[in-house]
Amino acid sequence: MCAKATMEDFEALLKESFEIDTPEEGSVVKGKVIAIEAGQAIIDVGYKMEGRIDLKEFANPGEQPDINVGDEVEVYLDRVENSRGEAQISREKAKREEAWDRLEKAYAAETRVDGAIFGRVKGGFTVDLGGAVAFLPGSQVDVRPVRDAGPLMGLKQPFQILKMDRRRGNIVVSRRAILEESRAEQRAEVIGNLTEGQTVDGVVKNITEYGAFVDLGGVDGLLHVTDMAWRRVNHPSEILAIGETVKVQVIKINKETHRISLGMKQLQEDPWDAVERAYPLGSVHKGRVTNITDYGAFVELEAGVEGLVHVSEMSWTKKNVHPGKIVSTSQEVDVMVLEIDSAKRRVSLGLKQTQRNPWEVFAENNPVGSTIEGEVKNITEFGLFIGLENDIDGMVHLSDLSWDQRGEDAIANYRKGDTVKAAVSEVDVEKERISLSIKALGEDTFTEAVDGVKRGSVITVEVTAIEEGGVEVDYNGAKSFIRRSDLSRDRGDQRPERFQVGDKVDVRVTNIDPKTRRMGLSIKAREIAEEKEAVEQYGSSDSGASLGDILGAALKGDKN
How far is CA 313 from CA 193, 466, 544, in A? Predict the structure, then answer.
């Protein structure tokens, strides 16, 4: 009975000894360095077990191993015995387990952890967090893109854990979060010391198309391109360079967003204060074309003072031409001040006003009635356009082409490019119109022909053509037409064929139209007038004499 109890006690003690002295695989145990040889440290982990670990596992990134004989270290026991009868141990895994415990506590408490960037991978960098390797995305390295990460490599610095998964072995950290937090504190302090209107010195950190960011000592302010100078600045790089120290004025501070607006031109004298005095209306000045648009061109009169030459004020003659075909950027031009609006900081300029109105010049050099010569530039349904001096045109209306032909017929005699002569009929400077006449240079045969002829006159004409509707006749070179109904008082004699070309006929003038250049002629009207005159002279309505007797007496009286 006693022996049996003693045996059970021995087994229990033996089992307890195994449990205490024999480490469990997959755990972290303490060991002692008993030797260093061949680049390895030999470590006694107890229970007569020894293992080997490469010295590099005891070194931090970029440093030499820090291990000596007699040092106590924690190692990770992979296997109690390997093929060589030694314990398979690892310092890195021990550090990793220790690090994960520490990092999980920091992640839960949202506290910072120290680490060092030691490698570059796709999309970012690797960071040693004292035994655990984390991923640092490229976007989380700094508040702004980092072109050269060399100075950050191997440098021990704080990081913020963004995400971690122990089962998958993933840790994501951020250096940017630390910088932003520190930056926010610094910004708040710097902004608290700034006031709107204050003048400060700053360093240009970055330049964009719309402005420049200026470091005011821990906080950046935006210097917009429109606040750099009173003159037009096409790009900030024209007047600023990265790293340059500049003096700026604090224009506005947004306490909520911590955004600061800066200005440089506010420290300079505003040229607009003297614009009305320096550029009186109607005065002419030299300027430089700075910008060209569809609606006009901007001309700089001095630094900070620009005016607009509207497209309608660019040329007397080029009405529908793009401003870029009249002036070019950087060209020096003479302009006249037309209007100034100081409140809106606008100056209206004129380019054409610096040159004489070509219609005025033409009117002075070519009075009404003078003869000009020019090229046919265009032919329209209502007349010809003739090119004149100084790129202006004059128009010959259809009615001014010929004395003898209808305008529609006369215009067919002209072609583009023909050189013609014409007389100046009218010059309207205000409406920019010049009226010309080609027919004025020729003889007015109609006016000469009808000179002294009045309505009711009896004239002798010559038959020149027989037509179905009447006959064409000529009077001193003026053509007219007698309709069939006007050929005789008697309907039976209203036959054109009873006349022959060359016949001389007496007719009565019923109308003279200078516009159509036609005379209204009638044989019938002449016969009726003669009959009336005979009745009045040789008879009366109650005499009983026949019309034949009266006309016979009248004819006999004429013979006597």
Answer: 52, 61, 87
Q: Report which DSSP code applies to 153.
A: B
Tokens for 268, please give them: 């300079």
Cβ(155)–Cβ(62) below 8 Å? no
d(CA 267, CA 247): 9
How many residues comprise the chain?
A: 560
Q: What residues pair up with 522 in beta bridges, in sequence order?
A: 508
445-536 belongs to which homologous superfamily? Nucleic acid-binding proteins (2.40.50.140)
Tracing tokens 């309709």 back to the chain, one arrives at: 483
Per residue in 455-487, pLDDT tens? 888 999 999 999 999 999 988 877 889 999 999
Sheet-wide strand order for 27-37: 49-54, 40-46, 27-37, 72-79, 88-90
Q: How far apart are CA 392 and CA 38, in angstroms?
A: 103
DSSP, collapsed to helix, strand or coil, labels residue 419 as strand
**The CATH number of domain 31-108 is 1.10.260:** no
Report which residue type is found at 339: E
CATH superfamily of 194-267: Nucleic acid-binding proteins (2.40.50.140)
In single-letter form, the type of residue at position 201 comes to D
Specify the residue for token string 């976007």: 139
Please, what CATH class does the domain formed by 110-180 belong to? mainly beta
Domain ranges of the chain: 31-108, 110-180, 194-267, 271-350, 358-437, 445-536
**Strands (DSSP E) along 181-235, which ranges?**
199-207, 211-215, 220-224
CATH 3.90.226.10 fits 271-350, yes or no: no
The whole-number pLDDT of residue 543 equals 47
| Cα Dmax for the chain | 203
Answering whether pTM is above 0.70, one says: no
User: What's the pLDDT tens digit per position in 135-166?
Assistant: 999 999 888 788 888 888 888 899 999 999 88
At 13, list the tokens.
Answer: 């003690």
